[in-house]
Design goal:
The complex is a heterodimer of chains A (357) and B (246). With 357 residues, chain A is mainly alpha-helical. The model of chain A has no long low-confidence stretch (mean pLDDT 86). The longest helix of chain A has 28 residues. Chain A has a three-stranded antiparallel beta sheet, with no helix packed on it. Chain A has a single domain, classed as ABC transporter involved in vitamin B12 uptake, BtuC. In chain A, 69% of the residues lie in helices and 5% in strands. With 246 residues, chain B is α/β, with parallel strands linked by helices. The mean pLDDT of chain B is 90. The chains are: A mainly alpha (357), B alpha/beta (246). Chains A and B meet through helix 9 and helix 10 of A and helix 2 and helix 3 of B. The complex binds adenosine-5'-triphosphate and magnesium ion. Magnesium ion binds next to helix 1 of chain B.
Chain lengths: 357, 246
Amino acid sequence: MVIRVEARRGRLIIHVLNKWRFAWNVEPRYWRNPLIAAILWICLPLLILLMPRGLPIGPTTLLSALFLANVVSISAIAHAFQTIGTGRLNFGPNFFVVVGGYVAALLNKNYGLGPALTFLAAFGITALVGLALSPLTIISRGLYFTLITMILPFIMHELVYWRVDIFGAETGIPGITRLIAVESITDYYIICFYISLAIALTLLFIVDKIFRSRWGFMLGVINEDEDVAASFGIETKKIKVTIFTLTSGVMGISGWLIAHYYGSFAGTLWLDPWLLIFILLSSVIGGKSAIYGSVLGAYFVVLARDMLRPFIGGLALLGLYAVLLAALYLLPEGLWGLYRKPRYREYVPRIYVRRKL
Amino acid sequence: MVLHANNLVKRFGGIVAVNNVSLKINGGEVVGLIGPNGSGKTTLINLVSGFYKPDGGRIVFEGIDITKKEPYERVKLGIARTFQIPRLISNMTALQNVAYAIVGSKRFREKKMTLEEALSEAIYYLDIVGLLRKRDVLVKDLPLYEQRLLELARALATNPRFIMVDEVMAGLNPVEADNVAKLVQRLREEFKLTILWVEHVLRIIMRSVERVLVMNEGKIIAEGPPHEVVKNPVVVKAYIGEEVVL
Ligand SMILES: Nc1ncnc2c1ncn2[C@@H]1O[C@H](COP(=O)(O)OP(=O)(O)OP(=O)(O)O)[C@@H](O)[C@H]1O
Ligand SMILES: [Mg+2]
């Protein structure tokens, strides 16, 4: 017999010519799922290019939606990580995105720094802003923290209108160097997708490494009960400040992507609550179990809006809201919960916000 | 001297929960601390462990002034505690609940331990309190008795020299309470611990402690060997109206 297939202990074993043997686990949870997910993610633009023509949504619209989904993913990963590591819900992540965007735009426009340098600057300066605000994670918790951070985007809004000469109000800052110089618009979209994907994957990889280390374990304890963490030797203040600072910097990178992708940056557009809603919804829909869910969530919200738009136009956000409610009702643990369920005893920090003030 | 607290004061709004309390505990001693409800026993523990900052007074541990130290620093110096209402991380397993105490301990950093080493050491502490078989059970699925044992294992895992146990026997049936009392005794000998043992009533720790402090309304009102304290009229008066007798 040339090929013989044998099923044993949940595995399919394929013998070829009695020489080679391939074993395959039937149960999906033993697959190398992170790898599969990454490959699917990388292949997404191909799927779109292979799409039949004449659909209500064209491939370029979809490609630019994918880019936006990556931008939201990056912020949402950072936001979810911050929520876990500080045990507090930041309600103004779009503030940090806009800070990063302005840093990139202004340094590029006024000092001619290229995207590579503005990348470092956007991360660094937004992280410094985060560091300056990080004492909030020590002096406030619960609803107070949420309220204080909620005000940040409004303050930024004021600043933008106060110095129109610098920030350009709603016209924004035009003429920013593009991420990459190419002729075809489709190529541009695809390359930008891969740049943002590379950032998102790197971020996921780092966060995953942290989660599996003793740091992740300590973050989990802080997230579940900060007082217990402190009573058992964990330096909660230091960890919270570090996490808040670094994740703020990462949100700044989202802003950097936006500024160099569109070639102009109008902060007021991104301070508008919709970006905030996207980031927050991403983790709700994704599930409170982990960071990976927020990527699913980000894709879900961005694509749901863009898919709904041709049908219900300006009401897309309302439609999204209905979908969200349905998701909350049908999937209390979010999209990620479907995957996590059989492994709940393997501790992974969940997003959990203390109600105690 | 292991612990020396001097004129500790803690106020909550109008209530003075701890009012000018001074106490000294020597190395190797097992000191009982009793008092009626709301007399400030837990608050005193919270002051020593750093959970609350005192409004006045000083705390010296093994010659080091710890009054201004953060809770995590105090654990590293060798002060451990249990909570009156078990305060464990309910989404983690029993093993993980001991493991983070090891990760936070001083030796974790000094010996450059890994997370895996911390987890295997946690097994040792679970075994000591008899919870080895429950290591992979989520804490929210454990009954009160086992949560109390787990609290003890977690406190031990920090490698303490001084441990404060807060009403570990409350809510347990007599057999369980007796087991816990024996366990605390055993741990004391095995790990050479100094213990501050808080209970609501004296009867259950009568035979286990050498010296008793009695608190009432934030003040220490009596002190002495258990059999003398029981007869002290001031103490008897403090407990009047309570159904449980000394
Ligand atoms: N965090 C707090 N905020 C306000 N008041 C508090 C707080 N903690 C304790 N108190 C008050 O301080 C007093 C002492 O409380 P404490 O918990 O120390 O008593 P206790 O001796 O441990 O009593 P029990 O036997 O019931 O455990 C009580 O009147 C209590 O209401
Ligand atoms: Mg108490």
